[in-house]
Amino acid sequence: MAELGPVIDTDTLKMRGLSATLPQLKPGCLAKDKWTNIDGLHLDSVDDYVDELRALLDEAGFDGGTLWKRMIHIFYTSLIRIPNGNYIYDLYSVLSFYTLTWAKIKGGPVQKIEDIANRELKNYSAKISS
Known about the structure:
By secondary structure, this protein is mostly helical. It is built from four helices and no strands. Helix 2 (about 65-80) runs antiparallel to helix 3 (about 85-105) and helix 3 runs antiparallel to helix 4 (about 110-130).
């Protein structure tokens, strides 16, 4: 399944985007490391967010495998960098729509991951309402 690419439950995933000038494409050339050329894309360090995600996955006891870890890192960091976002909603999206799907496929701790995602969203909601 991993060879097919990321498996994401997009039925209820909130999408957002940006209107940007994309890097010029050249036939036969890879567009590697061209993210910096996209106007409006946030390129701040996302290491703290990724570390938090890793800690939550460890708490859940879920290991999706090496390839899955690389895919989720790319997905999560790309999602965080899109403007007008909120990191906690991005975290919730990654846990609910990406990690849960993979956990179901692998027979992982689905309920634990779902509980952690809901807990993080609830804690964030409580913070902003107080």
